[in-house]
Each structure stands twice: as structure tokens, then as C-alpha cells.
Write a structure and sequence with these properties.
The complex is a heterodimer of chains A (262) and B (257). Helix content of chain A is 84%, strand content 0%. Chain A is mainly alpha-helical. The longest helix of chain A is centred in the C-terminal third of the chain and has 39 residues. With 257 residues, chain B is mainly α. Chain B has a single domain, classed as MetI-like fold (Orthogonal Bundle). The two termini of chain B are 24 Å apart. The interface between A and B is large, with 63 and 63 residues.
């Protein structure tokens, strides 16, 4: 019983434990001196780099821009993806026609698009929006199409029996039933949107985390580079938490019913 | 394979053709070489395809090596972590954290240690492919049914045998999903890595085209990447279906029942 409690405690604080563990191992490796300290600074150096960037406002500025871009892009792309999925559900012609288009655009890496898009859209917010939406729209779209198509017949027939119109069936039965799977797509999309923003900033930006990463790397300010990487990863955690909160709001019934997220 | 009726095929063509026409119309209106239409892109594909083929070869080779390295390391590691529950529980937050770190963000650090050669790119690609692989493998092997464990014990299997004969096969469906994601992300990141650590490959080709204001050429290269990505993703999916037929058959009957 006692050992069980210890394990329980361990599980509850495991994020903290693993964080401390990483910091400790990092410091240990750094102090071993196997790798030149310039390339692999200890924790104090990284912390002071973090503090310096925080004090100058540089970090907050870049973080704010990157996170806003990623979130706005994710919201736009999710709305567009769900819209396209609904359109595909209504019109089989559109679905058949759009499927090959989607299959062709989907594997294009964001990095390949940046240099071409710069000429057409300039370096402003239009570029970021275009890149993010073009890469991020697919997971919500594919999941949406699959989920809308697989809504159980029984549910749709019940709707028809209650005298609902086609629109009401779509809006009140099919869409809510598809939401859990759509959200799985949105969650995956949130990771990609962050990636797309950072890549776009690295290749064509003049602000944001990606740009700062490249600039610090070329200035060989290594502790700052590690700090920025850490902040990038933290962004992912933040976005994940936001998507999860929204999912709980919208599809909480599903999670409560099945006891596990879709 | 059911053959689609002629009418359906035709109606399926409406949307792509409309998109192409709209693009061409926009290009005509813009009337600048910086915004080429599909026709100019087609011409560039015809002119540049030998060059593009050569460059894409480098890219594919590196993507394949990076992917294989990641698969060889991460699948066994994932199964091991799923088996050692305590270690797994502690490592899990670290994996979650790494999963949210965009692969291009590791480029500057990799550059310090491995320079800008093939090695550096392979490391970045392997990192990108490793994340979905280890996450999926770990999740799957963590969730292996406890009953199978008891069976293994009553058969007196050793730890290694249990992992090999029980954990691995029962995790395979999820590992396959991880593999599919990993292939896609290896391709994606290989182009990115080339653009940031330029030597050769299709990413560099695109950058050269940009520097010479040959937008149509760049779009031609992108078209190649997209077709290639489509073919590879489909291939992986087909292989998955063929090797995991037992899983799909079982889940189909389960759904019907």
C-alpha cells in the first residue's frame, strides 16, 4: 500500500521530476567537459542568457509575435478545413474533385513554399497566413471528411424521423458527432502550425522566434540559442493546452462518455 | 477495385480544372514573370526535369537514411520504455516536450556539432522522424493488454522474448501509424534542412531558382516534390495494409459486429 502511494506521488509530480532530471543530467554532462563548453553551456549560462533576453524585452517580443501568428493561423486553417470538409460532405462532386488537389498539396513542405511565396505575397503577414494555412488545413480537413462520412446511420435516421431538415441534421447531428475526431486533427495541426511559423521566420522573417534563432546562431550566442529552443518547445505545450481546453469545452460529453480522449 | 462510372470521373475533374483555370486567369491578370500560371510551370517542368531528378535523388537518399536511423533506434526504445513503467512515466513529459519542438529549431545546434554536411542533415531528419515513432511505439506498448503479460509469464518467456513476441506485434498497428507520420515528416524536414544548410538537393535547387527570379522553375520543383510525396505516402499506406491485414480484418469484423 505504501509503495503504491509513493508511486502515485511520483506520477503526480512526474513533469517536475523529469524536468529536474533533465536539468541535472544536462549540468552533469556540461561539467564533465567532454563537449566544448562553448557549444554545450551549463545551466547557469543558459539561465543568464534567458534572463538577459527577458530583460531586454527581445524574448517577449519575439514570443508574442510567433505565438500570435501560430494561433491565428491555426484558427483560420481549422475553420477553413472544417468548412471544406462540410462542403465535401454536402457535394460529392466537390469531394471527388478536391481529394486529388488535397493529396497533391498536402506533401509540400512549408520551407519549399516560402521562397516562391515571398515574390507573390511579400514579407508581411500575408506570407505567414498563406504558409500556415496551406500546411495546417489538412489534418482538420481529412479528419473532418472521414468523421462526417462515418456518422452512424442510426443517428441520421433518428434525425430524419424527428423531422429535421438536411441542414439541421448536418448542424445538430453530424457535426457534433464528428467533432471529437476533428479535434484530434486540430491538435495535430497545432504542432504543424508552430513548425510552419518558425520555418517561415527562419527563411524569410525579420522578427519572431525563428528569426531570432538564426540570428543568435550566426552570432554564436549559444546559450541564447538553447533558451530559444526551450521557448519553442514551451510554445507547443501552451498551444496543446489551449486546444485541449477548447476540446473539453466542445466535446467534453464525448470524453466523459468514453473515459478517454478520441 | 471498383471502376468508377464515366460520369463520376468527369464530375471529379470539374474542381481541379476550375482551380487551374482560376490560377491561369490570375496569372494573366498579374502579367509578370513573378506570378507564373500553370502553363509556364508546365513548360519549366519540361525544360528542367533532368536537373530536378538529379537533385531530388540527393534529398531522397538523405531522407531515407535519416528515417531508417530513427526507426532502428526508436522502435526498440519505445517498446522498452513501455515495458519499464516507472522510467516511462518519468520520460514521458520529456517526450511530450520534444514532440512540440519544431525540428527546424534544432538546426542551429546541429550545425554547431556536425557542420553543414550530409551528417548534419541526416541528424535533423532523424530527429524529425524519431518523434512520431517513439511517441506511437511507447503509447502502444504501454497499452498492451495485461492479459498478454500473464500469458507470457505462464509460457516462461524471458523479458527479451516477451518484448519481441508479444509487445512488438501487438504494438505494430500503432507503430505503423507512427511510421507513416515519420516518413511524411522526414520528407518535409529534408527539404527544410537543405534550405538552411545549403549544399545540394531539391531545397537548394528551389533557392537557386528564387535567387534567379525563376519562380516557374521553383514551382516546377515543388510540383515534383508534391507528386513524389503523394507516391511515397501511398506506398507506405499500401505496405501497411498488406502487412497488417490481420489487424484491419479484425477491426472490420469488430465494427460490423
Amino acid at each position: 500500500m505504501n509503495s503504491f502511494r509513493v508511486f502515485d506521488l511520483l506520477l503526480r509530480f512526474r513533469t517536475l521530476i523529469s524536468f529536474v532530471l533533465v536539468v541535472a543530467v544536462w549540468q552533469f554532462v556540461a561539467s564533465l567537459g567532454l563537449v566544448p563548453e562553448k557549444y554545450f553551456p551549463g545551466i547557469p549560462a543558459i539561465a543568464s542568457g534567458f534572463w538577459a533576453m527577458l530583460k531586454s524585452g527581445e524574448l517577449f517580443n519575439a514570443e508574442w509575435r510567433t505565438l500570435t501568428r501560430a494561433l491565428v493561423g491555426l484558427a483560420g486553417a481549422s475553420a477553413l478545413g472544417i468548412g471544406l470538409a462540410i462542403l465535401s460532405d454536402i457535394s460529392p462532386t466537390f469531394r471527388r474533385g478536391f481529394a486529388p488537389v488535397a493529396a497533391l498539396i498536402q506533401p509540400i513542405p512549408p520551407a519549399a513554399l516560402v521562397p516562391m511565396a515571398v515574390f507573390m505575397l511579400g514579407l508581411g503577414p500575408k506570407l505567414y497566413t498563406f504558409i500556415i494555412i496551406l500546411v495546417t488545413v489538412w489534418p482538420p480537413y481529412f479528419n473532418g471528411v472521414a468523421a462526417l462520412a462515418s456518422v452512424s446511420d442510426v443517428q441520421i435516421r433518428s434525425g430524419q424521423m424527428l423531422g429535421l431538415s438536411r441542414w439541421e441534421i448536418l448542424w445538430r447531428i453530424k457535426l457534433p458527432a464528428a467533432m471529437p475526431e476533428i479535434f484530434a486533427g486540430v491538435r495535430y495541426a497545432s504542432t504543424i502550425s508552430l513548425l510552419a511559423v518558425v520555418v517561415a521566420e527562419m527563411l524569410a522573417g525579420h522578427d519572431g522566434l525563428g528569426f531570432l534563432l538564426i540570428r543568435k546562431a550566426f552570432a554564436i550566442r549559444i546559450p541564447e540559442v538553447y533558451t530559444l529552443m526551450f521557448v519553442c518547445a514551451l510554445n507547443g505545450v501552451v498551444m496543446n493546452a489551449m486546444v485541449n481546453a477548447l476540446r473539453w469545452q466542445m466535446t467534453g460529453w464525448h470524453i466523459r462518455m468514453t473515459g478517454q480522449p478520441a | 477495385m471498383k471502376r468508377a462510372p464515366f460520369n463520376e470521373t468527369m464530375s471529379g475533374l470539374i474542381v481541379p480544372i476550375a482551380i487551374l483555370l482560376a490560377w491561369q486567369a490570375l496569372a494573366w491578370r498579374a502579367a509578370t514573370p513573378l506570378f507564373p500560371g500553370p502553363w509556364q510551370v508546365a513548360v519549366s517542368i519540361w525544360k528542367l526535369y533532368p536537373q530536378i531528378f538529379g537533385q531530388i535523388g540527393y534529398t531522397l537518399m538523405r531522407a531515407a537514411i535519416g528515417f531508417l536511423v530513427a526507426a532502428a533506434l526508436m522502435i526498440p526504445l519505445g517498446i522498452l520504455l513501455g515495458r519499464l513503467k516507472t522510467v516511462g512515466a518519468i520520460v514521458e513529459p520529456i517526450m511530450d516536450m520534444l514532440a512540440t519542438l519544431p525540428p527546424p529549431a534544432v538546426v542551429p545546434i546541429v550545425m554547431l556539432f556536425a557542420g553543414t554536411g550530409d551528417m548534419a542533415k541526416i541528424v535533423v531528419i532523424a530527429y524529425a522522424a524519431a518523434v512520431p515513432l517513439i511517441m506511437n511505439t511507447y503509447e502502444a506498448s504501454k497499452g498492451v493488454h495485461p492479459m498478454t503479460n500473464l500469458v507470457a509469464r505462464s509460457l516462461r518467456l524471458s523479458r527479451l522474448e516477451t518484448m519481441l513476441h508479444i509487445d512488438l506485434p501487438s504494438s505494430l498497428p500503432m507503430i505503423a501509424t507512427g511510421l507513416r507520420l515519420a516518413v511524411a515528416s522526414a520528407l518535409l524536414v529534408s527539404v527544410t534542412a537543405e534550405m538552411l544548410l545549403a549544399t545540394n538537393g531539391i531545397g537548394v535547387f528551389i533557392q537557386r531558382q528564387q535567387e534567379n527570379f525563376q519562380i516557374a522553375g521553383g514551382l516546377a520543383a515543388i510540383a515534383f516534390i508534391s507528386v513524389l510525396g503523394l507516391i511515397i505516402n501511398n506506398l507506405v499506406f499500401q505496405l501497411e495494409k498488406r502487412w497488417l491485414f490481420w489487424h484491419y480484418r479484425a477491426s472490420e469484423t469488430h465494427n460490423n459486429g
